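Input/output pair, single chain:
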Amino acid sequence: MSQYTRDAIRRFPLRALVALAMCVAAGFAVHLRAADGSKGKLLVYDAKVAAEQGDWYFKVEFEPIMFRLVELSRLGLPLQDATVMLQREVADRLLAKPGTGDYGMLTVLIGHRASVDRVLNLPPGAFRPAPKVHSSVVRLRFHPPDPGVRDESVLAAVVGAVFSRRRKTIGNALLAYGGTTPASAAAALASVGINPIRRPETLSIAELCRVADAVLAAPPNKEEVG
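Output:
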Protein backbone atom coordinates (compact mmCIF):
# COMPACT_ATOMS: atom_id res chain seq x y z
CA MET A 1 0.00 0.00 0.00
CA SER A 2 1.40 3.38 -1.00
CA GLN A 3 1.82 6.30 1.39
CA TYR A 4 -0.75 8.18 -0.68
CA THR A 5 -3.29 5.40 -0.04
CA ARG A 6 -2.52 5.35 3.69
CA ASP A 7 -3.03 9.12 3.89
CA ALA A 8 -6.32 8.86 2.00
CA ILE A 9 -7.62 6.19 4.38
CA ARG A 10 -6.71 8.30 7.41
CA ARG A 11 -8.38 11.40 5.94
CA PHE A 12 -11.49 9.69 4.58
CA PRO A 13 -12.16 6.54 6.66
CA LEU A 14 -15.82 6.27 5.60
CA ARG A 15 -14.90 6.40 1.93
CA ALA A 16 -12.25 3.78 2.60
CA LEU A 17 -14.92 1.49 4.05
CA VAL A 18 -17.01 1.91 0.92
CA ALA A 19 -13.98 1.21 -1.25
CA LEU A 20 -13.29 -1.97 0.72
CA ALA A 21 -16.90 -3.07 0.28
CA MET A 22 -16.62 -2.37 -3.46
CA CYS A 23 -13.56 -4.61 -3.71
CA VAL A 24 -15.35 -7.38 -1.82
CA ALA A 25 -18.46 -7.01 -3.96
CA ALA A 26 -16.37 -7.26 -7.11
CA GLY A 27 -14.94 -10.57 -5.92
CA PHE A 28 -11.40 -9.43 -5.17
CA ALA A 29 -9.34 -11.19 -2.50
CA VAL A 30 -9.13 -8.69 0.36
CA HIS A 31 -6.26 -8.93 2.81
CA LEU A 32 -6.43 -7.68 6.37
CA ARG A 33 -3.40 -6.47 8.35
CA ALA A 34 -3.68 -7.15 12.08
CA ALA A 35 -2.38 -4.93 14.88
CA ASP A 36 0.94 -6.81 15.07
CA GLY A 37 1.55 -6.42 11.33
CA SER A 38 0.63 -9.99 10.35
CA LYS A 39 -1.58 -10.52 7.33
CA GLY A 40 -4.49 -12.82 6.64
CA LYS A 41 -6.84 -13.22 3.71
CA LEU A 42 -10.24 -11.83 4.65
CA LEU A 43 -12.25 -13.58 1.96
CA VAL A 44 -12.96 -13.89 -1.69
CA TYR A 45 -16.63 -13.06 -1.96
CA ASP A 46 -18.79 -13.11 -5.04
CA ALA A 47 -21.58 -10.78 -3.91
CA LYS A 48 -24.78 -9.94 -5.73
CA VAL A 49 -24.22 -6.43 -7.05
CA ALA A 50 -27.09 -4.12 -7.93
CA ALA A 51 -27.45 -3.14 -11.55
CA GLU A 52 -28.30 0.46 -10.67
CA GLN A 53 -25.26 2.67 -10.34
CA GLY A 54 -24.80 3.83 -6.76
CA ASP A 55 -26.97 1.10 -5.27
CA TRP A 56 -24.47 -1.80 -5.52
CA TYR A 57 -23.18 -1.48 -1.94
CA PHE A 58 -26.59 -2.03 -0.42
CA LYS A 59 -27.00 -5.39 -2.17
CA VAL A 60 -23.85 -6.89 -0.62
CA GLU A 61 -24.66 -9.67 1.84
CA PHE A 62 -22.53 -8.78 4.85
CA GLU A 63 -23.30 -11.71 7.15
CA PRO A 64 -20.66 -13.95 5.50
CA ILE A 65 -18.11 -11.18 6.06
CA MET A 66 -18.99 -11.01 9.76
CA PHE A 67 -18.70 -14.78 10.14
CA ARG A 68 -15.38 -14.77 8.28
CA LEU A 69 -13.94 -12.15 10.61
CA VAL A 70 -14.92 -14.23 13.62
CA GLU A 71 -13.47 -17.35 11.99
CA LEU A 72 -10.15 -15.56 11.45
CA SER A 73 -10.13 -14.58 15.12
CA ARG A 74 -10.86 -18.19 16.11
CA LEU A 75 -8.04 -19.44 13.88
CA GLY A 76 -5.57 -17.24 15.72
CA LEU A 77 -5.27 -14.07 13.65
CA PRO A 78 -4.70 -11.40 16.33
CA LEU A 79 -7.59 -9.13 15.38
CA GLN A 80 -8.34 -6.34 17.81
CA ASP A 81 -11.35 -4.64 16.29
CA ALA A 82 -13.17 -3.98 13.04
CA THR A 83 -15.36 -1.03 12.08
CA VAL A 84 -17.88 -1.91 9.41
CA MET A 85 -20.71 -0.13 7.62
CA LEU A 86 -23.77 -2.36 7.23
CA GLN A 87 -27.41 -2.19 6.40
CA ARG A 88 -29.15 -1.11 9.58
CA GLU A 89 -31.22 -4.30 9.75
CA VAL A 90 -28.00 -6.35 9.92
CA ALA A 91 -26.67 -4.09 12.67
CA ASP A 92 -29.94 -4.55 14.55
CA ARG A 93 -29.45 -8.32 14.43
CA LEU A 94 -25.89 -8.01 15.69
CA LEU A 95 -27.08 -5.98 18.68
CA ALA A 96 -30.32 -7.86 19.40
CA LYS A 97 -31.25 -9.14 22.85
CA PRO A 98 -32.64 -12.60 23.64
CA GLY A 99 -36.40 -12.81 23.23
CA THR A 100 -36.54 -10.31 20.37
CA GLY A 101 -37.32 -11.00 16.73
CA ASP A 102 -33.88 -9.86 15.55
CA TYR A 103 -32.02 -12.22 17.91
CA GLY A 104 -30.60 -15.22 16.10
CA MET A 105 -27.61 -17.11 14.79
CA LEU A 106 -25.75 -13.95 13.73
CA THR A 107 -26.20 -12.39 17.18
CA VAL A 108 -25.00 -15.48 19.02
CA LEU A 109 -21.98 -16.49 16.96
CA ILE A 110 -20.65 -12.95 16.58
CA GLY A 111 -21.40 -12.06 20.20
CA HIS A 112 -19.57 -15.17 21.39
CA ARG A 113 -16.33 -13.81 19.91
CA ALA A 114 -16.78 -10.03 19.86
CA SER A 115 -18.52 -7.17 21.61
CA VAL A 116 -20.54 -5.02 19.23
CA ASP A 117 -21.26 -1.30 19.50
CA ARG A 118 -23.22 0.91 17.14
CA VAL A 119 -21.08 3.92 16.23
CA LEU A 120 -23.69 5.83 14.24
CA ASN A 121 -26.71 5.48 12.00
CA LEU A 122 -26.72 6.85 8.47
CA PRO A 123 -29.92 7.87 6.66
CA PRO A 124 -30.33 7.33 2.93
CA GLY A 125 -29.72 11.05 2.42
CA ALA A 126 -26.10 10.58 3.51
CA PHE A 127 -25.37 9.00 0.12
CA ARG A 128 -25.69 10.13 -3.48
CA PRO A 129 -27.74 8.74 -5.04
CA ALA A 130 -29.81 7.94 -1.97
CA PRO A 131 -30.44 4.20 -1.50
CA LYS A 132 -33.70 2.67 -0.33
CA VAL A 133 -32.21 1.42 2.96
CA HIS A 134 -30.72 2.90 6.12
CA SER A 135 -27.17 2.07 7.19
CA SER A 136 -25.24 1.77 10.44
CA VAL A 137 -21.57 1.79 11.31
CA VAL A 138 -20.71 -0.79 13.98
CA ARG A 139 -17.50 -1.61 15.78
CA LEU A 140 -16.56 -5.16 16.71
CA ARG A 141 -13.99 -5.68 19.48
CA PHE A 142 -12.71 -9.22 19.35
CA HIS A 143 -12.12 -11.26 22.50
CA PRO A 144 -11.59 -14.92 23.44
CA PRO A 145 -14.76 -17.03 23.35
CA ASP A 146 -17.07 -15.94 26.15
CA PRO A 147 -18.01 -18.28 27.63
CA GLY A 148 -15.56 -20.96 26.55
CA VAL A 149 -16.95 -24.08 24.89
CA ARG A 150 -15.55 -27.52 24.23
CA ASP A 151 -15.86 -27.22 20.45
CA GLU A 152 -16.83 -24.01 18.63
CA SER A 153 -17.77 -25.92 15.49
CA VAL A 154 -20.35 -27.86 17.50
CA LEU A 155 -21.66 -24.59 18.95
CA ALA A 156 -22.06 -23.16 15.44
CA ALA A 157 -23.84 -26.32 14.24
CA VAL A 158 -26.18 -26.44 17.25
CA VAL A 159 -27.01 -22.74 17.00
CA GLY A 160 -27.66 -23.04 13.27
CA ALA A 161 -29.89 -26.06 13.87
CA VAL A 162 -32.04 -24.61 16.64
CA PHE A 163 -32.53 -21.26 14.93
CA SER A 164 -33.70 -23.05 11.80
CA ARG A 165 -36.65 -23.99 14.03
CA ARG A 166 -36.77 -20.84 16.12
CA ARG A 167 -40.56 -20.91 16.53
CA LYS A 168 -40.49 -24.40 18.04
CA THR A 169 -39.46 -25.36 21.57
CA ILE A 170 -35.77 -25.89 22.21
CA GLY A 171 -36.47 -29.55 22.92
CA ASN A 172 -37.98 -29.92 19.45
CA ALA A 173 -35.54 -27.60 17.70
CA LEU A 174 -32.54 -29.62 18.90
CA LEU A 175 -33.77 -32.51 16.75
CA ALA A 176 -32.50 -30.55 13.74
CA TYR A 177 -28.96 -31.22 14.96
CA GLY A 178 -27.86 -34.48 13.36
CA GLY A 179 -28.18 -37.63 15.43
CA THR A 180 -30.24 -36.04 18.20
CA THR A 181 -33.29 -37.95 19.41
CA PRO A 182 -36.11 -36.68 21.64
CA ALA A 183 -34.60 -38.62 24.53
CA SER A 184 -31.04 -37.34 24.02
CA ALA A 185 -32.28 -33.77 23.55
CA ALA A 186 -34.27 -33.94 26.77
CA ALA A 187 -31.31 -35.42 28.65
CA ALA A 188 -28.89 -32.78 27.35
CA LEU A 189 -31.22 -29.92 28.30
CA ALA A 190 -31.92 -31.40 31.73
CA SER A 191 -28.19 -31.74 32.43
CA VAL A 192 -27.70 -27.98 32.04
CA GLY A 193 -30.99 -26.87 33.60
CA ILE A 194 -32.69 -25.61 30.43
CA ASN A 195 -36.48 -25.95 30.31
CA PRO A 196 -37.23 -27.87 27.08
CA ILE A 197 -40.38 -25.84 26.38
CA ARG A 198 -38.46 -22.58 25.97
CA ARG A 199 -37.96 -21.27 22.46
CA PRO A 200 -34.43 -20.99 21.02
CA GLU A 201 -34.68 -17.21 20.67
CA THR A 202 -35.08 -16.85 24.46
CA LEU A 203 -31.75 -18.52 25.29
CA SER A 204 -28.76 -16.34 26.03
CA ILE A 205 -25.36 -16.91 24.46
CA ALA A 206 -24.15 -18.51 27.70
CA GLU A 207 -27.13 -20.87 27.79
CA LEU A 208 -26.64 -21.91 24.17
CA CYS A 209 -22.99 -22.62 24.94
CA ARG A 210 -24.05 -24.92 27.77
CA VAL A 211 -26.48 -26.68 25.47
CA ALA A 212 -23.74 -27.23 22.85
CA ASP A 213 -21.40 -28.69 25.46
CA ALA A 214 -24.17 -30.96 26.76
CA VAL A 215 -24.96 -32.21 23.27
CA LEU A 216 -21.26 -32.92 22.67
CA ALA A 217 -21.00 -34.78 25.98
CA ALA A 218 -24.00 -36.96 25.25
CA PRO A 219 -23.20 -40.54 24.18
CA PRO A 220 -23.75 -41.28 20.48
CA ASN A 221 -27.23 -42.45 19.61
CA LYS A 222 -27.41 -46.18 19.02
CA GLU A 223 -30.50 -47.44 17.30
CA GLU A 224 -31.94 -50.58 18.78
CA VAL A 225 -31.77 -53.64 16.63
CA GLY A 226 -35.02 -55.62 16.63
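Strands lie at 29-33, 39-44, 81-87, 114-122, 135-142. Residues 152-217 form a domain with the Helicase, Ruva Protein; domain 3 fold (CATH 1.10.8.100).
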